[in-house]
Design brief:
The complex is a heterotrimer of chains A (935), B (430) and C (154). Chain B has 430 residues and is α/β, with parallel strands linked by helices. In chain B, 42% of the residues lie in helices and 11% in strands. The two termini of chain B are 40 Å apart. In chain C, helix 3 packs across helix 4. The mean pLDDT of chain C is 96. The chains are: A alpha/beta (935), B alpha/beta (430), C alpha+beta (154). Chains B and C meet through strand 5, strand 8 and helix 12 of B and helix 2 and helix 5 of C. The complex binds flavin mononucleotide (FMN), iron/sulfur cluster and FE2/S2 (inorganic) cluster (FES).
Amino acid sequence: MAIIFIDGKPYQAKDGVSLLDACLSLGFDVPYFCWHPALHSVGACRQCAVKVFKDEKDAKGKIVMSCMTPVADGMRLSIDDPEAIKFRASVIEWLMLNHPHDCPVCDEGGECHLQDMTLLAGHVYRRTTLKKRTHTNQDLGPFVNHEMNRCIQCYRCVRFYKDYAGGKDLDVFGCHDHVYFGRSRDGALESEFSGNLVEVCPTGVFTDKTFKKHYTRKWDLQAAPSVCVHCSLGCNTLPGERYGTLRRIRNRYNQSVNGYFLCDRGRYGYEFVNSKIRIRTASVKTNGAAPADEAAPELAISEIRKKLNGTHEGGIIGIGSPRASLESNYALRELVGAENFYHGVSDTVFNMMGEIVRIIKDGPVAAASLEDAREADAVLVLGEDVSNTAPMLALALRQASRNAPMVNLAKFKIPHWDDAAARNAIQNEKSPFFVASFTGTRLDGLSSEKPYRAAPDDVARLGFLIAHELAPESPGVPDASAEEKSLARRIAVALRNSKKPLIVCGTGPQSIHILRAAANAAWALKRAVPDARIAFSLPGCNSMGLALMDFPSGRPVSEALKRVQAGGAKAVIVIENELDESIGKEGAEEIMSLPCSVAIDFIATRTSQLAGVALPAASFAESQGTFVNNEARAQRFYMVMQPQNKNIHGVWRWIMEIKAALGTEKQCPEIDALTAELAKRMPQFAPIADRAYFPPPGFRIAGMKIPRQPHRYSGRTAMHTNIGMVEPKPPADTGSALSFSMEGFYDASKKQKIPSALLTHYWAPFWNSVQALNKFQSGTGGPLLGGESGKRLMEPSGSAPAYFTDIPEKQKKAPGPSGANNKGFFAVPLYHVFGSERLSMESQAVAGLCPEEGQPFIAASPRTLSALGLNKSDTMELEIGGAVFDFKTVADEEMAEGLAGVFVPKNANIAADLAGLYSKLPAWARFLVKTERKQ
Amino acid sequence: MSAKDPQAYPLTAGMEMNGKAVGLQKYEALGGYEGAKKALLQMGPAQVMQEVKDSNLRGRGGAGFPTGQKWSFVPMGENAPNTRYLVVNADEMEPGAFKDKFLLEGNPHQLIEGMVISSYAIGASVSYVFLRWAYKEAAKRIEQAISEAHSKGYLGKNIFGSGFDHEVRLHTSAGRYICGEETALLTALEGKRGIPRAKPPFPQICGLWGKPTVVNNVETMANVPHIIRNGAKWFKEISRSSDGGTKIYGASGRVNRPGAWELPMGTPLRELLEIHAGGMKDGYKLKGIMPGGASTEFMLEEHLDTPMDFDSVPKAGSRLGTGTLMVMDHKTCPVGLVLNIMEFFARESCGWCTPCREGLPWLTGILRKVEHGDGNPEDLEILNEHIPLLGMGRTFCALAPGAIEPLQSALKYYKQDFEAHIEKKTCPYK
Amino acid sequence: MLTPSEIEEIKHEVERAGRGLNASVEALKIVQRQRRWVPDEELEEVSKLLGVTTHELDAVATFYSFIFRRPVGKNLILVCDGPACWMLNGHMLAETIKAELGIGLGETTKDGEFTFLPISCIGLCDKAPAMMINDDVYGGLTPEKVREALKKYR
Ligand SMILES: Cc1cc2nc3c(=O)[nH]c(=O)nc-3n(C[C@H](O)[C@H](O)[C@H](O)COP(=O)(O)O)c2cc1C
Ligand code: SF4
Ligand code: FES
């Protein structure tokens, strides 16, 4: 800690940070543009000028850029110095020379960092009479709107896009006051992090294009803390609602998880909430005919009661879901009884999840948070295509790839936040980084050596070899080649020589061997490097929650099918699930043909269409609950808005209704009570009962609830006049400490801390943009004030590792092109960030970026294809697991020889039999010559 | 100018008026490459560095930073990075400057010898000449000199059997004044957009491709062989000031003999103007002189007795800069001239920092208004207000501070001219 | 399309300077030598040879004044607009060129023979006013001398 004097008063500041950082952290309002808490300093905009004095006697002082000046003990500076004030106002005046003076019609208006800084710096009067320069705008694709005239050349966009996120298709063109930020030509931005430009850009150059379609003023958005549902990482979000539709998603800062950013799937995947495929009314199928429209909920419930009459005990089975909340799964499990509760996942996923829990719980190595991943200084990615299955983990790994060489900055006396200097000093040096995958990944560019391309079992073998290199007692791979051994040795040495190595794997390859190999490697590494971590990417936003619910027992959906086939069940309740994905088309049909079948979901699925009764559920935005992310961090999401009609309920509440109808329970508890009950009943979830993380509905500050609406929310008295002239009472929220209103407690002074888990928006006097966040952190980039907003449920037990010993055999080579019936590949699953997650595919913007126009395809190397007599643009028939599918063929230079990558997008039109294909992968596939194929 | 005494005019001794370069043979006859031989065979790098320090050679790129001292910041010794670079700044885009061109075209071997010696001193095995786009003739001559030096073993492996290897590479730039700024130059040399870098870290610590790098001006380099050959003492003696050596001075504008000349450092302005440049042309009176390019303040008649060296010129309110005078006569409109200069700087701003990128075009617009008779008194206020706002430390690099130097002094010395434009609503010089 | 010899030359530069943007300016100049400017297609080819994207390369190309991303006539007339030339009425030379060729600053003759651009100081201040046509330099210009010089390129 250093003592610095700001305008004569002493303050404590962290050593080694920049003066700007220190001032902001202390709560001072120093304006800035080019600086960003995650991108650090480059000194371009000159907005952050302050005056520093040599010593007490120095009265003249010197103007410096606070972002480029390191804090030093005893330093004296002035923010209020007239010369500094004048200079800062001038910077705004310069920036406003060419900036349009049309805030009222600008998409950024209301949360514009330029507006804020203009007020803060005190520039008011336009003196120039010169013409403004203008630019043309570009079409940057479905996510980001471009309006270049609003640019103030802070360079933050390119610094985020290129330097931070590794994008290569956004740049700065031209020179002097003509500099232009965009692409060389129009076209969709290629980076899956492009949406962050919206928040990184301080003005209205880059804005949210999907939001533009149903625009509303920023201060009119009702928001609540939420958690992303589009992958397992649990990034924190702030969805915003107006007039009953979800309008956009913004980042919700969480230092331990996503930090300042989100991926585009998370930001733009929200439109399913508003989509046509929402189930908004209950439907009851009569006599196997099409569902009756608009069955009243009572009707649906009475139908269930009728069907279930007498069968309640043991006759109902429940199928839970990795995308349903902990509460919903718990409610179902309670209703049907633990022995009748099935995890709605395939055997493969079920087994992998069990193994992952065991690895984290019983092993000595902690699961990495995204923050851990950002701080790693050596990375081994085993098989998982992180960029496509857990994008923000990929972004974190990108930061990790810079950490090892950053150590050298000290030699040059370059502070880590001096971003341009640091990048120059580091040049192309990278942390040790190794990728083993089936095909090319977007992390390959970071790889220290040529990525290892191989089949799942071979990737696992490499992992086992590495583990063996690190610790001889971890079993070796007897028939490994010399090359494989030496690669493993190089990787082992690099990992051992680092301080925070990270092993990354996941369920994507659907190989339990890879998970075990990763565990062995991490455990072996831990002996030499105490801070070693392991990161898992999982299939769904609550896969971990579901897995933990029954660990170490539990059953996958295949057991449910067996039970049904054996006649052991009369009724089934399925929540938030597409059964054919886990059990196949026939299996799903069999289960759903029980005399009573109920599906509770918010979108229409093939399963809900098969169901006798389909009940309209609330989406994440209309409900409250807990998701457990990939590192076993339980995080709470809150209702952003009321469901569109009174028929829609949270899944858990529907289950309570059914329970009541069946007469076992009369009182329906509040969600909060349900969470508390579950925390009490299941020790693995006990930490979520911590009321600091999970303030009860009765929680008040100064007697007030926390408002979901900002205090400038407008139109409340008018917005419902199409329905009635009387202003309705804001709906009550009995389940949380949040209110559906603009009244309530809000204070950005850092004195009275709103629990970070309840922060619904960031605003402070002068700070309307996202940058207001600094008022709610303890130090920029630090934790939010008011306590953690998530709880880790599982830490390693610390016991000595019991290394896995079953080493898979070397992958057999494809039989080769000898005879038409003998042509095969080994088929492995492929994923795409835009295409492999069901809900986001209901967003037009996301679906539009799905590869091959949303068609399934097979990717194989040109050599593999030609060995089979195929061209790259052929279609083919492929037999996998006894079924035959039609596929488009795609040549993939990077695919390991003999492998075929199978990609099936998760959109609504995919045939049910294809949907279940992934549950069978990896597997041998036989290629059939298509009879009608053109010569 | 033939048969000049190489002891008194070391840089230009062999140069002829016919525009041809001093060839290798002639250069050798004048003692060329003897300095390099002496340095590489008889002196250690530290000794070379010390000699240059002792000579009081100050950088001729404009700022006058002591060259030996600059070199001494390069980390040397076992723990230092073993790749280091020397880069010669031959960008010379400063309007009004043409002295480096004079040396480059006149005696390219002298530069190369300087580079070999300097690289030896800092332990660089590769050095670069960063040459201005427009200097096509110089480019040819440098290329030729490099290949000649190679064939004689002055470049390449094991020079003079000393064990020292060295390669010189020529990079011809693609325009942009900012690339003359040493850190922007390095960025440009890396094939990127020529944006300056913040200092610290200084290039000597972390420069080209992140490696220790010394950037020196062409004229600075040209002095090095002579310092090594004749010694620091000699170098100091041939100067008329405490800064060592000679200086290439020059003059343009309405003078009788515009041109460039090598003269002892510290030659007074009056001598340059009246003797070497031959005084003002008939019918023209002196109105002001920019002593060292377009980014230096005007000097007036009353400053004519200023010795032209790095410390004296600032006392007269300006900077030595490049030492090539731009002489403004009494029939030239100072507002028009400053406008011309400001247009240049506004156009050449790299676009990185706000004050320069936005401020200079604004000033240009205002000056244009004033020059064309559309100005008003508030415009002058805005001009004046910008002088401190664009000063050193306010902008990211020294381009904008340089750009406002002529404006600042014009506002001071030619205030009536500005006011006359506004009052008469036209340019009184038209 | 790049010619085989251009590709060779660019590859040579890349070999010397390393992949990435290092050799970008050299490579773009090679493209310009025959074509006088850098069309999109060639920009893309060069970017592939360097191992960068067109966006990254174009960012560099558009920064520099003498990498042209728009067509340039066969002969490039660059009249100095530096202060020394300005003082000696160098800006008046534009009128002569306009009268002779019918083009103003930034324009190209219809027949594609000449493009007329300004250039900042070309180090001929002592011979002001000055200009360059292609690689040739001309000092001490008068309207007469400009007309004379232009003749050589017609
Ligand atoms: C905008 C700007 C342009 C410059 N242009 C040149 C130039 O063209 N040639 C040059 O030698 N120095 C130029 N300099 C100075 C260089 O930054 C650097 O100080 C010089 O090359 C160092 O060489 P020296 O120590 O030998 O003087 C320029 C500086 C600035 C700020
Ligand atoms: S002062 Fe700023 S904009 Fe101007 S050239 Fe320097 S860095 Fe670029
Ligand atoms: S924030 Fe400091 S210069 Fe931009």
